[in-house]
Amino acid sequence: MSIARRLASLAFLALGSLITLGGQPAWATGTAAGTAPVGTQAKTAERADTSTALFPAGWPFPADRTPAAGSRGMVVSADTLASAAGLAVLREGGNAIDAAVAVHFALAVVYPQAGNLGGGGFMVVRTADGREATLDFRERAPLAAGRDMYVDEDGKAGSASRTGHLAAGVPGSVAGMAKAHRRFGRLAWDRLLEPARRLAAEGFPVSERLHDALTAQLERFSHFPATAAIFLPDGRPPSRGAVLRQPDLARSLEAISDSGPHAFYRGWIADSVVAEMERGGGLISKRDLEEYRAIWRGPIVIQYAGRRLISMGPPSGGGVVLGEMLGMLERFDLRGLEYRSADEIHLMTEAMRRAYADRNRHLGDPDFVSVPIDRLLSPAYLDSLGKTIDPERATPSEPDVAVAPESAQTTHYSVLDSAGNAVAVTTTINGSFGSAAVVRGAGFLLNNEMDDFTTRPGEPNMYGLVQGESNSIAPGKRMLSAMTPTIVVAPDGRTELVTGTPGGPTITTSVLQVVVAQLDHGLGAQQAVNAPRVHHQHLPDLLRYERGGLEPSVIEELERRGHRIEERAGFSGDVQSIYVSPDGVRYGAADPRGGGAALGY
Question: Which of 172, 371, 388, 452 has its Cα between 20 and 30 A from that of 480?
Fold first, then answer.
């Protein structure tokens, strides 16, 4: 073990005392890690009325819940242990990019539903000196992939794009984290992977959330011996509170720690991936791995409510769709409308409908298709779209195609350090636990991102969405995504909001509603995250809302205006946000829909 790793190991051993107050995790006590109780500070951030009347009666997530607060750094992710790993890096002098790397690899261990070595994603960075960068580490189709590879002799698309080795695209996560660290990182690479390696080697207690997620995969995992060996010991998921150890994953993390991305894309891990492909009939080759590159792309920049929003461009559709929706909505006086009223939701729905129609028609991998970003986000075009919105009547969606999103088991994390460097990352292996196939000997799950392509034009994908030609399969192509990691810059130049979410097709509309709640209606960070959400994606022509999320009178009025409305089962997304107040206090808001944690100091 290197000296750096030994020092990192000692730092990680101290993590428990770092994040606990009175023997409990800090997030569970209502205080931010390393700070005094947040009551007074939180009320500064929660600018709107905190009465529960702000949300519909019976809505389960209160409007008066306070966020975590810290004067220096903040990490918000879908898992407490991952947030703690990032916070330890910040306390040690690492910057936001360092902490993001630590969080990412920790999530690969403790949140296998979506955290990953075998997937990909997108990162948005804004440095303390105002530099902006967006990183595409999305998966690619293997070079042996073909347009109709999932179509059978009867012309139907089966399940091979969803489960098993053929569903996997070439992973980008390790390359993406290494590329971000090389450009912006401060601490040693092996220090940043040490928390994840220790969590994999020594284990962690299985949460109720993980136990339930594994239980739901019982039948699927049983077809893959390497997967079952890890997640179904004795043929069933580990019980709640049992320690889950992943020695093969720890070995992979140690190799990546020692040798960087070379170990993953050219070393023994690459050999293991190729052997797994041969074993299960997949397509990823040694050449696919050797040629994979994460790419710095130009950010999508959106002007709204006097702010500058930085989001992700294609092959993520998130930034373009968010920009279109906000561009249309800025032509209306949302601030003058009652929050979550029929008037507000109607305008939002009509903007969603139009933006998603454009996404369906035009967006794809910019290395393969021409994406008219400038035209779609031009003031003239958005003005023309906005003028087609009737404030009193819904516009029926015209028949068209809809592109595929990743699943709700995507995950997002947000980081802000003491200097003001900010990072927003959304990452995924697509469906819950990806393809369900673990790389034997390497211990990580492979993605099932190939289902995000048009597996067959006109054929619904795993989320019931019918897709078009811009997102058809081609060798080396990156599949279109809904991921929308976003950073908002205040008029005074400070980073004001760092946010994002999983949620498949609801990703971009969830980010939209968080932004509007804070910038137009003055809700605080936690209120905006806790608030009920709605979603429309052009096709099907259906306005969906979270269970109990709309008042009956609002539903009745929306139906009168011509909307077809459906209450969805469960909830939308798992937003992880950081809001920075004018006095510099960082407020972290973890979504109560999930089991995440906001930790600051």
Answer: 388
Of 7, 37, 12, which Cα lies nearest the Cα of 22?
37
Measured CA to CA, the distance from residue 532 to residue 549 in angstroms comes to: 5
pLDDT one-digit tens code per residue, 330-368: 999 999 999 999 999 999 999 999 999 999 889 999 999
Name the residue with tokens 């009168």: 560
**H or E segment to which residue 4 belongs:** helix 3-13
Q: What is the pLDDT of residue 24?
A: 30
**Share in percent of the chain as helix, strand, coil (round to 5):** 40, 15, 45
Q: What is the pLDDT of residue 151?
A: 82
Beta strands, E only, 312-458 = 411-416, 422-428
The active-site residue out of 50, 80, 349, 410 is 410
What is the predicted pLDDT for the residue at 155? Answer: 67
**In the predicted structure, residue 152 carries a pLDDT above the cut 90:** no
Compute the distance between CA of residue 532 and CA of residue 492 in angstroms, rounded to an integer.
30
Measured N-to-C along each axis, helices 3-13 and 189-202 cross at an angle, to the nearest 10 degrees, of 60
CA trace torsion 208, 212, 213, 218 (10° rounding): 140
Q: What is the pLDDT of residue 408?
A: 61
> Count of CB atoms within 10 A of residue 522's CB?
15
Taking 90 as the threshold, does the pLDDT of residue 481 lie above it?
yes
Q: Using the predicted structure, report yes or no on whether residue 465 has a pLDDT greater than 70.
A: no
In degrees rounded to 5, what are phi and psi of residue 126?
Answer: -130, 120
Q: Are 424 and 485 in contact (CB under 8 A)?
A: yes
Of 190, 165, 178, nearest to 272 (Cα)?
Answer: 165
Mean pLDDT for all residues in the chain: 90
Residue with structure tokens 């929050």?
339
Res. 454 pLDDT band, cuts 50 70 90: confident
Q: What average pLDDT score do residues 208-227 get?
A: 97
Provide DSSP, 276-287: HHHHHT----HH
Mark whether 508 is an active-site residue.
no
Confidence of residue 282 (pLDDT cuts 50, 70, 90): very high
Cα gap 169→429, rounded to integer Å: 9
Helix axes 80-91, 96-110, angle to 10 degrees: 150
Q: Alpha helix locations (H) across 217-260?
A: 218-221, 225-231, 247-259
278 Cβ contact list (under 8 Å, min separation 6):
none
Instruction: Give backbone dihedrals phi and psi of 135, rounded to 5 degrees, phi first.
Output: -115, 125
Interacting residues of 15 by C-beta distance below 8 A, sequence separation 6+: 84, 85, 88, 195
Per the listing, tokens 């993520």 go with 316
* Residues sharing a CB contact under 8 Å with residue 221, sequence separation 6 or more, in sequence order: 214, 227, 228, 231, 232, 433, 436
Answer yes or no: are the C-beta atoms of 288 and 315 closer than 8 Å.
no
β-pairing, 295-297 vs 543-545, is unpaired
